[in-house]
Amino acid sequence: MFMHNKRLQYTVRVGETNPALASLLLEQFGGPDGELAAAMRYFTQGLGEDDPGRKDMLLDIATEELSHLEVIGSIVAMLNKGIKAQLSEAAQEEAELYRSITSGGDSHTQALLFGGGPSLTNSSGVPWTAAYVDTRGEPTCDLRSNIAAESRAKIIYERLINVTDDPGIKDALGFLMTREIAHQKSFEKALYAITDNFPSGKLQGVGRFTDVYVNTSQGEGDMSGPWNAAPQFEKIDELAEVMPADEGDGTATVKLSRPETAAAKRVAERTASDPANDAETGADLGAGPGAGKISGGEDMGTAKDIKTAAKTA
Amino acid sequence: MFMHNKRLQYTVRVGETNPALASLLLEQFGGPDGELAAAMRYFTQGLGEDDPGRKDMLLDIATEELSHLEVIGSIVAMLNKGIKAQLSEAAQEEAELYRSITSGGDSHTQALLFGGGPSLTNSSGVPWTAAYVDTRGEPTCDLRSNIAAESRAKIIYERLINVTDDPGIKDALGFLMTREIAHQKSFEKALYAITDNFPSGKLQGVGRFTDVYVNTSQGEGDMSGPWNAAPQFEKIDELAEVMPADEGDGTATVKLSRPETAAAKRVAERTASDPANDAETGADLGAGPGAGKISGGEDMGTAKDIKTAAKTA
Amino acid sequence: MFMHNKRLQYTVRVGETNPALASLLLEQFGGPDGELAAAMRYFTQGLGEDDPGRKDMLLDIATEELSHLEVIGSIVAMLNKGIKAQLSEAAQEEAELYRSITSGGDSHTQALLFGGGPSLTNSSGVPWTAAYVDTRGEPTCDLRSNIAAESRAKIIYERLINVTDDPGIKDALGFLMTREIAHQKSFEKALYAITDNFPSGKLQGVGRFTDVYVNTSQGEGDMSGPWNAAPQFEKIDELAEVMPADEGDGTATVKLSRPETAAAKRVAERTASDPANDAETGADLGAGPGAGKISGGEDMGTAKDIKTAAKTA
Amino acid sequence: MFMHNKRLQYTVRVGETNPALASLLLEQFGGPDGELAAAMRYFTQGLGEDDPGRKDMLLDIATEELSHLEVIGSIVAMLNKGIKAQLSEAAQEEAELYRSITSGGDSHTQALLFGGGPSLTNSSGVPWTAAYVDTRGEPTCDLRSNIAAESRAKIIYERLINVTDDPGIKDALGFLMTREIAHQKSFEKALYAITDNFPSGKLQGVGRFTDVYVNTSQGEGDMSGPWNAAPQFEKIDELAEVMPADEGDGTATVKLSRPETAAAKRVAERTASDPANDAETGADLGAGPGAGKISGGEDMGTAKDIKTAAKTA
Amino acid sequence: MFMHNKRLQYTVRVGETNPALASLLLEQFGGPDGELAAAMRYFTQGLGEDDPGRKDMLLDIATEELSHLEVIGSIVAMLNKGIKAQLSEAAQEEAELYRSITSGGDSHTQALLFGGGPSLTNSSGVPWTAAYVDTRGEPTCDLRSNIAAESRAKIIYERLINVTDDPGIKDALGFLMTREIAHQKSFEKALYAITDNFPSGKLQGVGRFTDVYVNTSQGEGDMSGPWNAAPQFEKIDELAEVMPADEGDGTATVKLSRPETAAAKRVAERTASDPANDAETGADLGAGPGAGKISGGEDMGTAKDIKTAAKTA
Amino acid sequence: MFMHNKRLQYTVRVGETNPALASLLLEQFGGPDGELAAAMRYFTQGLGEDDPGRKDMLLDIATEELSHLEVIGSIVAMLNKGIKAQLSEAAQEEAELYRSITSGGDSHTQALLFGGGPSLTNSSGVPWTAAYVDTRGEPTCDLRSNIAAESRAKIIYERLINVTDDPGIKDALGFLMTREIAHQKSFEKALYAITDNFPSGKLQGVGRFTDVYVNTSQGEGDMSGPWNAAPQFEKIDELAEVMPADEGDGTATVKLSRPETAAAKRVAERTASDPANDAETGADLGAGPGAGKISGGEDMGTAKDIKTAAKTA
Question: What is the ipTM metric for this complex?
């Protein structure tokens, strides 16, 4: 059961109102790496977890993230406090209010639709979605997802710190950023407290494919490093060797029942494409009266013939 | 530039059609951990990456994931080949077709809307969204996200293998699952090829908060482990100590300009809540003629009085 | 700042596992009227609220809704506990597992993607979105939205109670449903503690339009009642009277600058539709060789001629 | 069946073009409280309603909202008429066109993607979603939702009026705003024409929980009012009393079958977290060569030690 | 299977960085008519297609669209290269960085959340969704959808060309735009290579309804042309003739079973609306003390009485 | 302005209730090719259109589509009328109601969340989104999009007809399907009434690229037809010729300012990947105690070595 104390986890001291900055900070309120995403990721994991240590940790951190949501939301509310009041009291001329709410970012929607309160959107106004939550109910996956999520949240805070010069906001953001570092460390510890955590799950892979690296992107810029070379990896440069990677012919087949085969044949006949049928098309009809051939009008470009270009290259 | 060869990366041999199984496999075609998500995660990272080694690796793996998208989509197409033909030719009685498309999972929508082709949805029919792609443009984050994503994709394949008894499908899924393991290893190698990769980004955290663990969830089940205890962590059990964590008073404040203050005062007065005003409400109006008090009618429950319960607890 | 105690607000006793029922209950976990929606509605309002009484109430109820989220999520986790374990251990034959996860509702996705944990989706698998949260930052709107939201949440719980025969689940759902009733009453009280709460906001409407009812849907079934008749309303049956409702001509106009006018003229000429140009179309080209006129083939229907029908009607 | 007359319900006279203002007005075209949301809310309710009076009213108001959608869309079209023509004719220098479409709000997308026509998005460009429609098929809920929705729509119009100084637009917005007031009154009348409308649905709540108020948010700022105090409510300040609210132990349990128990045991063993295993982690590996401990580098902050801070507080 | 060569399909030469322009170009990276949408539309069609000619064409064009995605994404990456580096190194003063990322469009989110890499969103920051992909598995539909999609993509490129004065970008966009024209022509040819392609599918329509045009929008502005008049169409102006279009009474009916009828009767009674019950409402309660009637306060408007207006009109 | 008559455009006679069938029909109520999508596509085009003929046609057809939305929604309401009443009155045993709402498709959510009314979702429960509306404000695009949309809607109706054996529903669906055919013909006529409608917009393409077909997908299955061969097209098989298609080197470049260059250099150094640094990774740490190498445990597969396979292929 949750309880709440009205004191924030970190004191919020905002120097002056600024709706455009408020809209940027929403990235950590209702954005994909924001505090709601964090809280819900750990909370859903905690509810589904049976291991007592992990369950406890997940609920601890989920709860702290809710407190962070409160801190960042409070900063947003402070930054919007002026426009909220002035818009609802029509306390300025229309033209001034118009300028105030179109001063940058997504502040216009924050003012008009959300009335200056913190909204669960990102800095573009995209509503938060649970699609951001990647809980999968397998601890070695979920902990890796948490580690990654904390590192992402850390970097978003760092960027916000870099664009803010209000010392009170910078200070609070620094606290929040640091807590993400601490949480990442907890999740790392928890991952490695599971003796055998790689690969995730129970099945080992097919041995002959686990250390193969397929060099599918070739040309100038091809590189070699520990991620694709010995001793860990065998690198396949000759793609024909893995097309397919098994001993088959690389096609897709299915056994159809007799009625399925019959129906498939009928649909094939009905919708057959006749390669010999070079018919007039709708585009021909619409290409305009003056043109001898489609798109043959005035050329917008200046580049040379494609063949020439190819030869030159 | 991309090129394509019509041979698949792995041969697909499906034993018989099964639209309901097809709808399950969509999880790895258009689901959050599916192959499109993987391809787009690495492709967007690769385009924004300047480090030559990582750029090469990201484009290699992105391209391979597109080939995996083709394999899984081909399995889905094979499993749906019968219903696709029969529905478009109305080759059965209506009642039989109705039964065929409501045989389980999300196969009804796959047949009706997508005509039996592979759709970029998950197994519930939720359209794929780029909200699944967590590329942030900072390599130490992105590689961690990739590691986590590969571990998630691996586990989804494992679950699909567990519910399928078609040997051809199992075989192809095993290949795809194994490649996720190999990719995770590449991303691990690439992460640790960056000398200093923790914490992500440039800023260190605030020293006094980096090794604190706030025990926000308490009661029976409180546990201790390396994720919240010494030597790494100092665990705070007395929450009043971190309410707030700084030396302030835990409130949120902002300095308002004079006109902002005036407007704020007016809106406060206009919308003031009067605690002494215990007025009749809309609910009172609507609570029905027979009841002496709201909700006082027949009680649906059988539990004892809350106070008694609380005392017993 | 939030704190958590590991005891639930209501004890959860589930009789037996049932993944399909679990998927139905998600409606109140990650659905539009579910507990996360409730918690976030009140929490965002509370952060943006300055009135001390309302702020306190909003944070109280937001916090309680988080505890409800925990209760409903715990029921889901219990119902899925069997399939979660069996799927991850592959503890049954594939065919049995396949049958287990396709037993109804959206349970297949819950098992495959979310591993049996509670997911922030509704009962169809649609991810929760902050688009459900209708906080607008004006208390007389927001309280009305809260009243409505509580009544919706109440009815969903009632429906879930009606389809469940597990006494432990019924009991917990009854508690949760009742709390929605109690919250609705609090919000009603709070709305009427604002002396002048209708219409919302500061502006009165235009007097001559506030008590007009436009009878736009006519024909058999036209009704009269206090919602459209005297003494409150003047009902307009003759729609020509309100087409337009002002003294204008009912058109839309704008003053264009000279260059805008010139550009508009050019685009009009370039894309002009020539009513005299009854050209052959792409559909004509594609209508098939045998047909004298488009769609003139075999008629699928049996109904009589439309003119005849019209005359009969 | 619907019919349409080309005259608008209110004459639209726009003084001059302004794409940025157009993008703000989209809030009421394709936003959550906009006219499409209103029309679809009442239309879906009307189709599912059997009570003749309510059905008639819902179709009347749904139809009028479609006419409002036409009015607001026409204003948007007028405001964009210049940029639409100039962009499609390339009637200015590129740099001028670039400046025109980046003049504020979301006008760039409106011009580039929607070509200056009214788009079904809100002022941030978020596409309209039926998730905004909260029809539940129970009249006492739906009418409350309608009342709330009308009050929200009213306030958005009020805010738009406050930021516009074009008299023709102000005039039309005033009409639209007023109609929302009138509709709210109709829905209120219709709600109270149902004799017993509270609580919604058929089930009464559990008596002992209907008048309890749980004071979950405590600390400085705790308030009392009719929404949480006698005579209506009994306020619980001692949270231990409602943890849990029933006579149980506040845990979640389920009875597992024998095979489920066995599988659960195996998964627990396989993924057990070993609290004694304080292993080296990926973060340790990546923390950089120079640091004696993780995050021990240069401290970004200036705040004092957390313990000191806590003691000071 | 896909392969990749590191050379782009078209050389990208960007004159100078410009994050705001980058955000506009995202329309063709992650927008509804962008290159990912194109690639996925054709790829999903190709996987589900059995006709060898169309399958080959669809895979050819899908693959080329992936190469276009790479070109447009590379332009975006180049335009953002400065802000990416400066933001991650905090290489400017906070205030300068703040100004840089709020210079227009959606560039703030691109910098903060995506770190300057190309994101799969449109120019408003809306994440790409597979809802954009309208593959239906029926070739005569899908080819028409492709034709339409190519024409839309062409026009978006044209608009982008019109707002850009960087010659390198203009050049690359011109190439991409032209390829859409070429693809449209291929799809036109493929559509007409199906002998009988109209109407789509197997069923002909009901003969008496296929050439009827219902003139549902009437009044000043009613027009006639080949789209609604003879020889193709019979135009119905008298709407009563098609209300309904069949010989029935235009109502909706269903046969209910006996228990269904009984339940329907009970719910009707319980929720009956009493037209005679003109009760006091929640709005009455909240209309404020001073007003004799609801909304009777100060009138915001200046327009004349609606009746008068109507008569004048 | 819109008006409504209570008679439907087509009489709805449903034989018996069937919630699962109702959920399938939602595809045309709130699905991507459903009637709301159609109505909104044409309505938004009509509002932005200045050409009188097209404007009239678009509003005519938009209005008719709203009437179709009413017809299909009425069928859904009839099919759900039994479950709606029984669920709200709890008129059956819980277990029976549970079975009724889990009888197939998405009927469970329709009953629980939407109470049996027609909801604006597709047959999977995905909420309707304006992302389905592809209005672009250029008539030659929009008409092509309309032609395609009508052909898609036609095919979905055909599929629904194929799975329904209720004659009344079949009859109404046949009417709706036929009207889509008629609308497609109107849009075709309107497209070709624009004299020069190809390519869309004002700019011609770059001449040397308009008739090139790039054969990017090669291998067995390569085909030739009018869509990629002479006389219309020049087919490029040698992909090196179009890599790049211009005379450049196929790279992406941008000119950076001096401070940008400096920052870029710093970030490159800080995050450099060291190809020589084959460090131990997190995966190594977690690979379990017994294994000599990662993933070296029990192999799940049976396939032969990849090299062998490749050679055999």
Answer: 0.92
